[in-house]
Every structure is written in structure tokens, then in C-alpha cells.
Amino acid sequence: MERYDVVIVGAGLAGLTLARQLLLTAGDRRILLLEKRAAIPPEGQKVGEATVQVSGYYLSKVLDLEEHLLREHFLKYNLRFYWKSAKDPASFENYSQSYIRQFSNIATYQLDRNTLEGELLRLNLEDARFTFRPGVSEIEADVDVAPHRVTWNGGGAPATAVCEWLVDTSGRGKLLARPRGLHLSGSIRHGTSFMWVEGLLNIEKLTALSATAALRHPNRVATGHAPLWLATNHFCGEGFWFWTIPLQGKTSLGLVFDNTLIPYDRVSSARKLTEWVCAEFPLFARDLPHRRILHHGGYKDFAFDCAQTISAERWAMSGEAGRFSDPLYSPGGDLISTYNTLIVDAILTEDASELSRKAALYEQMMRAFYEGYVPGFAVSYNALGDQEAFTLKYTWELTIYFGFYVFPFINGMFTDLRFATHFLRRFTELGRANRAMQSFVSDFYRWKKAGGLEPGDVTFFDFMEIGALREAERTFYQVGVSVDEAIREIDRQFANVQHLGRLIAAHVSSRVLGDRRVIWNRAFVEDISLPTLTFDPEEMRARHTRTAESTERYDWPFDPAVLDRFRPQTVGAGVGSQPRENSR
């Protein structure tokens, strides 16, 4: 019988990174990693390539993979979103865009998952504390006894190990969740179809323009000259988005969709997906049908929840063994990064009473991290169909992400119990406002659609033009802060999000009422309650009447006039355009 301090089941991204983090921080603890597949990485290409700030920081800085990431993968150019305009949809220059033009101070990457997981395994195998058993079957775990007992079949022979901690990273195999009745279906009902094609599909070349004309096109005033193909590019419509992600020597392409709007059978093969995309976004017909397809995969329904993912009985789950939400904004790597960090801290905790306190708090945090994403996927996915509605939605979500996910993570604050307790209180308050905001934006989209939502002029919008997002991004430069400073910063970011929420509500109200003056009406703005916010045109009109005589101006901490670009009266909403009326 073998004895280990930690047994990890599943050698995907979650398991390999957890092992790496433990080897870097856990002293002389011995780790066993069990994997059903005989070869890591597998022959087939693995999906889930894009990172954002938390996962990018975790991989590069916490796990010390920065040089590998820069040598073998692409540096990512943020997330960019595209919508068809009233012009010819067969040419790239005729698509409206929302984006962040500056590169992130915290580097993010486009990952070839197979290459990365191969490197993680190589590094782990260099450490004598790490044992790897591939090609095993019939894995069973008993975590109701101490030490835990794990059995498996390896090479036709049964084997057993005992361990202090067992962590399930077996993905959808769910070694712990299913037998213990912890698996939950969740509220997100989306599907996906994805494939990889040979070579770089450069979206900037999907045009009828000559190379010289494309390089000198006036759109460059807004977009600049960075290679746009380095981004995770999203081509959007109501309830769906199509991604393009560059990898070394290949391009990842995939459609994610509300499966009540798009039947999976319509896009269930590489051929069907190609036909659908070329019909919906004709610019891809210039290139995609001529590419060699390397691999295809998909899920009719992919999201799920879990009743519990960590226990003081010394077991835990990370990655898809526990929860999975949606690939929009690439939260999967972030959940692995945060869950692994909490799990490692729990493993390093020797005192049973302290572990009991931590496990209870960490379970609340793990659930909060996951549930923070859910309303944006389950409630307001339809807003992908409109640039204005989605820009409001994403700026709200990204402001929260920068201040409440990234800032604490890069400062190592989630494992400080005093900070975590205060964070959860604020995050819970924010959760109520977030659920209301997602419904509000979704209903705003429906209101626009009912009024005859048609593609307009080509419009460019940098999310960073909204001051609240710039304020949240400044926290990337606040490093090495004390617990007290971090708590004060969370409170500042909470206030910052409140200002943004009022701006979104006031802007939408002004669009419904046809009166942009309400944005500056202090009585109107201060009457907005974010936790109870609803899209109710009659209530907006009543509040407008109630506050019409007020002459006091609301003192915004940033300029709300940047959203005027989305107003119908804006002249030529493209590059260099200005609204007809003054910003104030």
C-alpha cells in the first residue's frame, strides 16, 4: 500500500496546476497524480485556450511559467467584440467593435492547452516528491475514513494508496461529486461547437480591400495597429458568439449559444459549423471553407454546479470536477486559479479547528466566485445581440472583475480570513445588484429589439472610455498592500461600482425617455436603487415627472457623455464622430 500526503485524480489543467502549486509551496509533502488517459497531453486538441488576468497571473507568476508562455504561446490582446453594421458584412472593416485598446498590465495568453499541459507534467516529473500514474482505470475513493483510501487498476493489477488529502480534478468524470450526490445541473443552458483549422485565420484580412488600403483605412484611428487577431475575438448576435483564437500553427474557432435559440444539430459537425458561420458572418466565407480542419468537438449542454467543493474532512474539487459556467470571458481558468489557491492553503493548514473555519469560509468563497458569473450567462445572454446593451453589460462585469477578482488575487488576499470575511459581505451586497442589473440590461435589449433593432453605422467603443472601468484597472498597480489597505480598497471599488450602476440605469432611462438631461438630474439619479433595479418604462416616466423640477446636478466622478455615441441622434457614429448636443 502506497502512502502520500495528497492524491490528485485527473491530469488536466486543474490537476497539473494544483500539483505544480503544491510542489512550489508545500514543503516535503508527497503527491500522487492519477490519470485514466495513457498519454498526457492527449492526441486530440483540448479546448479552453484563452486566459484573462487572474489565470494569466496564476500561470505566469504564481506557477513561474512566464518564459514558457512567452516562448510557446501567444500573448493575448484582450477581448474584442464585433457586430454587423448596415454595410456589407462580407468585409471586416464594416463591423462595429467594442474593445480595450491598451494591452493589459497583467499579461494574458492564448494557450495551446496540449503544449501547456505537457510542460506542466514535465516540470512536475522533475520533482522527486511527485509520482504520476497514467493509464489507470476503476478509480474509487473513500473520503469518509481517515486517512482516505484510493483504489485503482493499473496495468491489470489492483493498487491502493492512502492519503491525508484527496482532490478531485477528474473533470466531467466527477469522482467525488456524483457518488456523494453533490452534482447540480445549474441554471445555464448553453451549447457549443468548436474546431481547429490549420494556420492563422487573420480576421483583418477578411476584406475586399487591397493590403495597402486595409493598412491605411480610417478605422485605424480607433483600432490602432496592434494585431487584432491576437485577441479573443467574439462575433456576436442575440444569445450567441463565435470565437477566433490564434495558436501556434493553428486557429481555434468556436460557437457558444443559448440552446433555446440555436439547436445543437444545426452546428454539430465541422461542416455544419462552417456553413452556419459563413452564413451568419459572411466575411468568414472568404477564408474558412478553404482551411484544413484538424479536429472538432462540442457539447449540447455544458454547464453545471456543485453543492460543495471543499471540506474540513480533507477533500476538495477543482476545475470541471466541481463547477463550470460558460466560456464567455474565459472564467474557467480563473476558477481553477482561485480554487487551487484556496485548496493549497487548506492543505497547508495543520490545525484541525483552523481548517474547519477555513473550509467553511472557502466553500462560501468558491460558491461566490462561481455565482458571480452565473446571472451574466443565465439572464442577459440576449444582450450579445446589440453593441450598446452589451457594452453596458460588459463594462459593469469587467469593473467588478478588476476590483473584486483581480485585485485581491494578485495581492494574495483571498486566504486572509479577515479580508475574506469583509470581502464576502461586500460581494454579497454586490451580488444582489448584479442580479438586478443583468435583468435590467436584458430587458433593455428586448425593448430595443421591439422597437426595430437594425444594424446602424460602424461604431467603435473602447470600454476604458468609461471612467469606472479605468478606476478599477488602477488596482492592478496596487501591490503589496496590507489587509487594512485591501479592505479600504474593496470599499472604494464597491462605491465605484455603485456609481457605474447608476450611470447605466440613468443612461438607459434617458434612452427610454428620450431625454438625456436625466443623466445630470441629481434627484433622478439618487432615486435609483440598484438592488431593486427593474426595467420599467412607466416607473422611469413617473420618476422623471417626480424629479423634473429639480435643478441640482449629479456630480459624476467620471464623464457620462462617452455613452452618447450610442444615441440615435449621434451624427456619423464612426471614427471621430461627435454627438449633436453638448455633453452637458
Descriptive overview:
With 584 residues, the protein is an alpha/beta fold. It has three domains: 2-71 and 111-183 and 306-378, FAD/NAD(P)-binding domain, CATH 3.50.50; 74-110 and 190-299, 2-Layer Sandwich (D-Amino Acid Oxidase, Chain A, domain 2), CATH 3.30.9; 386-584, no CATH class. The chain has 16 helices and 20 strands. Strand 13 (232-237) and strand 14 form a beta hairpin.
Gyration radius (Cα, Å) is: 25 Å
Overall, the morphology is: globular
Which fold name fills CATH's third level, the topology of the largest domain? Answer: FAD/NAD(P)-binding domain
Q: Which CATH architecture of the largest domain is right?
A: 3-Layer(bba) Sandwich
Task: Let me know the number of strands.
Answer: 20
Helical content class: 25-40%
Mean pLDDT level = 96
Largest β sheet strand count, sense and barrel closure: 8 strands, mixed
Strand content: 15-25%
What's the level 1 CATH class of the largest domain? Alpha Beta
Helix-strand blueprint:
Elements: E1 2-9, H1 13-25, E2 31-34, H2 53-62, H3 66-72, E3 74-75, E4 79-84, E5 95-99, E6 109-110, H4 113-125, E7 130-133, E8 136-142, E9 148-154, E10 157-168, E11 183-184, E12 190-198, H5 211-215, H6 220-223, E13 232-237, E14 240-247, E15 250-258, H7 270-280, E16 293-299, E17 305-306, E18 310-311, E19 315-317, H8 331-347, H9 352-371, H10 374-378, H11 387-410, H12 417-450, E20 460-462, H13 467-473, H14 483-513, H15 522-526, H16 537-547
Parallel strand pairs: 1-2, 1-10, 2-7, 4-13, 5-20, 10-19
Antiparallel strand pairs: 3-6, 4-5, 8-9, 9-10, 11-17, 12-15, 12-16, 13-14, 14-15, 18-19
Helix pairs in contact: 1-4, 1-8, 2-8, 2-11, 8-9, 9-12, 11-12, 11-13, 11-14, 12-14
